[in-house]
Amino acid sequence: MSPSSGRSSRRDFLKTALAAGAAGLAPRPASAAPKPALSPDRMGVLVDTTVCIGCRNCEWACKTAHALPTEPLKSYEDKSVFEKFRRPDDKALTVVNRFDAPKDAGTPHRWAKIQCMHCDRPACVSACIVGALSKSEDGSVLWSTRRCIGCRYCMVACPFQVPAFEYHKALEPSIRKCDFCHDRRRSGGLPACVESCPVEALTYGPREELIRVARARTKRYPQRYASHIYGESEVGGTSWLYLAGGDFADLRLPRLGPDPAPGVSESIQHGIFAYFIPPASLYGLLGLLMWISKNRPERGPHGPGE
Amino acid sequence: MRPAPVQGKFLTPGVIALILLAANGLAVLAWRLLFGLGAVTNLTNEYPWGIWIGIDVAGGVALAAGGFTTAALGHVMHRERYHAVIRPALLTAMLGYTFVAIGVAVDVGRPYSMWHPLVMWNGNSALFEVGMCVMCYLHVLYIEFLPVVAERFIGRVDLPGLLAPLNAPVDRLLRALDRGLAKTMFVFIIAGVVLSTLHQSSLGTLMVIAGPKMHPLWQTPILPLLFLLSAISVGFPMVIVESMLASRSFGLKPEMDALSDLGRMAAPLLGIWLAFKLGDMFVRETFVHLAKLDKASLFFMAEVLIGIVVPLRMFLSPAVLESPPLLLAASALVVLGVALNRVNNFIVAYTPPFAAGSYVPSLGEVSVTVGFICLLALIYRAMVMIFPVISLPDRSLPVPARYRVRG
Ligand code: SF4
Ligand code: SF4
Ligand code: SF4
Predict the structure, then answer these.
(1) Coil/strand/helix, residue A293
(2) From CA B92, how far away is CA B89, in angstroms rounded?
(3) How many domains does one find in chain A?
(4) pLDDT tens digits for A234-288?
(5) Domain ranges within chain B, ordered by starting residue
(6) Which residues of B touch A89 (CB under 8 A)?
(7) Atom 6 of ligand 1 has which residue's CA nearest to it?
(8) What's the CATH class of domain B2-160+168-389?
(9) Which residue of B has its CA nearest to A131?
(10) Collapsing DSSP states into helix, strand and coil, what is residue B296?
(11) Continuous segment of H or E residues that includes residue A44
């Protein structure tokens, strides 16, 4: 702006500033923040670790159902894999680990199958930059290859450290995690792991009902079970639930509070952006400041207030 | 004093070293694009983010803060005295953010899907917000730089051979653009400051969702505020560092007048950041973790001492403000400290529940990061030799330009 046209440029300034401010205040598109609809009939699985015998049939069934390479079922009888603690990865969406049993359990070992917990308030869904992850009505948290850009923020966010990434692919690397056998279930089937379990350590059903079943078991056999149902309240609740004979930390299930994992970050996020009012006000404030200081005489190099 | 292209030789031994390092980084980068992230990085399912996010992206955004802090000071508060440092800071921010965008693009697993966030929105995601703001700000920075391009070429458009008939129309276009921008530039300048405060703070929100996976010394709900305050604190010191390095490299006298005033403002800004950082530590009683003297506590103390306490004390001393080497040292400490802070937040503090080992960047990751920094320095050098960015004393200038633009 040339200094010669003080008044008219001031008017221009105000006009343009108002227009810019108004643009900032326009209502934001409704699609910006889809809230996952939590269906009351969402399904879940109850994992009873006091029943599991560590046969790893579920590992084999899961791989087979998801076209992942696997050794024949016979090789799963080899117990040496238990010497190392394993985590699910891009080649195994679920794994079973062996742990020392509590003292009076009458057995030296306990086993626990782990996979995505299918959280009710999933951190991965809240975090994903493009909304590639979503919580569906049947309880599963699903990943969409059509949207994913491979940023791996879901992995940073997940409190159970579940999503795995195909680091060795240059093209279309995927996020891999348990999909709760979404396709099988839609066509009326059971999750592959549940179907394959020979001792019914895995129970599939509506989550609400599973909690009732789990509570009944802990009440009926108080010596056999810890009273807590893992996943009922952890990070706002999960679709997969666990029963154990002792402390869940002994099965290396992370100790987590009842607050949903995305809670704090979402409220900060929406606080900063509340209908664009804070950014628009800042814009207005700076504009005002700029306008006021525009024609103010420059202070000397060592003037006051510097 | 007014901005003019710097004269001199482009190639010096130092520049050749930069070129070699940049070429090495680009070669590793080609490997990553051909064979995937796993082929060159040490990233795992436990540690999904490494130095490409911690340094190239988070560090890059923080250290480019000189752009919006000087714009706020020079344009919004109209302190004409600082105009000499605005253009260099603008150029650094523009190149810095360009490399941040490139850094993100090579870190994501599917670089060809980088456009997805434009049409696939998730308003709950801090990363989405950072991405959108950075993208908008990058455009604002390019627009803010346009007058410099116009100033360089108006009346001097000289296209080679067959394109020569276009000289007049291009010149007219530049003039129109320049006139239009002169009237509306303040819209972009304010937008740049607003966008910067937004994404500088949202960059802090990024790690909030990691919850207990982040060490309690760093995990706090006021992370966005701490990120914003540290970005504001590092803005002026970064401008001092780059201005001093540029003057030294081109054999010019450092602009001590403006620079020591910038240094004077750094102290209170650092003080505010320190107050919130320590206050947060006492409110959440995380100081108990300091006594452990483990990796986290040492990195935390290093960040506070190197980045805040020592330079804060230095900036308070008039002797430091008057002495070019001491002023450079104090500013460089803040720059190092804030870079360390970003590395701490994104890498050191990240403690996944099921970690078999810890993350140490691979040689390939380091090569790419170093390569990007060298490439940035090379482009900066070329740009200040082509465009009027750095202010030179009037008498060392050739014929005065016919056309002047406010910048
Ligand atoms: S366990 Fe992790 S990946 Fe699975 S739904 Fe929860 S946050 Fe998402
Ligand atoms: S890696 Fe894919 S699914 Fe995970 S947050 Fe990024 S875009 Fe979303
Ligand atoms: S529900 Fe399906 S995908 Fe998930 S662990 Fe079981 S078999 Fe694997």
Answers:
(1) helix
(2) 5
(3) 1
(4) 999 999 999 999 899 999 999 999 988 887 888 887 777 766 788 888 888 888 8
(5) 2-160+168-389
(6) 45
(7) A119
(8) mainly alpha
(9) B122
(10) helix
(11) strand A43-48
